[in-house]
Amino acid sequence: MGGRILESYYDYAHVSNLVYEALDLGFECIQVFPNMLPKVKEVLNGRGLEVCAVVSYPHGIFLPEQKAFEIKDAIEAGATQIEFVVHNINVRSGNWELVRDEFRACRQAAGSHVLKAILECEWLTDEMIRKVCGIAAEEKIDRVCTSIGVYTRPDENKNDMLIGVEPEDVRKVKAAVQGKVKVVAQGNIDSVSKCRELLDAGADYISSEFAADILRSWE
Predict the structure, then answer these.
(1) For residue 125, what is the enclosing H or E element?
(2) Which of 51, 78, 83 shows the shortest CA–CA distance to 67?
(3) pLDDT tier at 109 (50, 70, 90 boundaries)?
(4) 79 and 52 Cβ atoms separated by less than 8 Å
């Protein structure tokens, strides 16, 4: 289980609290924006915790060299893991060589650090998921994440509703990576029951902004 702060309205007190919760509850990692890394380092004060910086978040529409620069900068600032948003316009357009160039550039920039690629399964066909996950495996991406969890769809009353990850998303990614890449379920996961459904579907990791509440409720 990993915790995350990926909204711009939080302040640095929330970042500090996330670190303390992670240490207290035993998070696998925390996810933060690169500008939060100095505060995380300050609060950790030498204590061990995996810290994941998000790159090109939330839309992923950066060039490979821009993502590579951001990755290197985040690692220098203290990130031990990197999570980048895939350029899904390239995925949806079938520009597979551009997708491969992006993955390769990010892999080279990250070096030996854990590297995760965020898809948006809700916008991709099964064939797109199969293809992008295959490239991720070939380019040695360590983990594929199902979604970022910020997009919405209108409900029957035309109110915007956040799109959450579903077990079927996990099953599709799990089948596509064929055991070569770990699968992270991510996107509006707010309960123990939801976590169990996603783990049963094959998720290797869960990442949630509600991680602390979920772990405190786990039986």
Answers:
(1) none
(2) 83
(3) very high
(4) yes
The average confidence (pLDDT) of the chain is 94
Provide the CB-side half-sphere exposure for 165 (13 A, CA). Answer: 37
Share of the chain above pLDDT 70, in %: 98
Residue 114 is encoded by which pair of tokens? 């854990």
Q: Which residues touch 141 (CB under 8 Å, ≥6 apart)?
A: 103, 106, 107, 115, 116, 117, 181
Q: Which amino acid is at 212?
A: A
Total count of residues recorded for the chain: 219
The two structure tokens encoding residue 211: 């991680």
3 state DSSP class of 92: helix
Query: Residue 44: left if φ>0, alpha if ψ -120 to 50, beta else—which one?
Result: alpha
CA distance 33 to 165: 21
Q: Can you read off the two tokens belonging to residue 189? A: 């996961």
Which run of H or of E encompasses 74?
helix 64-76
* Cβ atoms of 198 and 165 closer than 8 Å: yes
